[in-house]
Amino acid sequence: MMDEWKQFLDDRERRQLLRRLVPSTGRAPALAVRDGREHVDFSSNDYLGLSSHPALIAAAREALDRYGVGAGASRLMSGDLAIHHELEEETAAFKGSAAALVFNSGYQANTGIVPALFGRRDAVFADQLCHASQLDGALLSRGKLLRFRHNDPEHLDRMLGKHRGAFERALVMTESVFSMDGDLAPLAALLAVCRRHDCRFMVDEAHATGVFGPQGRGCVEASDLAGQVDLVMGTFSKGLGGFGAYLAASRTVIDYLVNTARSFIYSTALPPAVIAADLAALRLCRSGETRGEELLRRAAAFREALRGRGWAVGGESQIVPVVVGESARAVALSKSLADRGFLVLPVRPPTVPEGSARLRFSLTAAHTERQVAAVVEALGAP
Question: Which domains, from first to last, does the chain contain?
Fold first, then answer.
């Protein structure tokens, strides 16, 4: 067995697909220190630069002084604190839902929610580019997993027309902002298909929360669908600069998950300092102090600058993929940029389909116009 594992690693390395951990020894907004050198960081999901915001740091420090470091137990034991409920109540108000539930991560949310609500007699219809955590949640449900073409409501409609009758219940899953392509799902059209075929609809707002919609409420709100989508999941760990995840849904669904979602029941609660920082971030968004619209304008200008140089650029969001095809080329370009002081990591199969290796640029509100112009210049032309 050890030989098989070694052979797997050797094969990954030969194909330039081997993943390695490379520690940073320092961080600041839009900056990372690696190998003793400061790099402008274009690989962070700290889209609004809130992870170092004074309000989040102060809230975390106050919670540390009041509660200590860890929660000490799961939410259903003695780890349930008033501040957890405060965050859930404000998250529900932020997302326009009746209730909300906090999970320890986006992965734990997606792998806990779907298997709790759907089972062997059900089907899950997932966009072809859905995040791995969504697909793992569907597989854990033991229901039938079916994939529809990326952002194609008509294909979903045909699939449901063909297969829906064979299953007791059905769930349709998508991301609102796709993490590797940066494009947006046609939420209203997908919801209409769901209603036509009596399906539940689940939207992952991980990369939209804090950035899209009024006050950063997400793409569901920006599409005027607040309160209409059955299950709206998102994270505090990207645009909001904290950690953890949430589900916004009906009170019945939330209460059901408290009793059935294994990833929630059997995990120690998030530390109070993390919850306090998440709450501070949410309040900054609701106050209108964040810069999501400005960030999206900057990302649009960045895409146009890269296209002007001849690069194949995708996305409609702060995530800007430059698709180069072969993994070896993506690795080489990433190294070349690192040598020039820019951290832009390559994304390769199996994270993305074969032949679509890319550089994934994540723009943040902390990047300056000078830094953005400099990385365009450093990348040059294809």
Answer: 23-48+291-379 (3.90.1150.10), 54-287 (3.40.640.10)
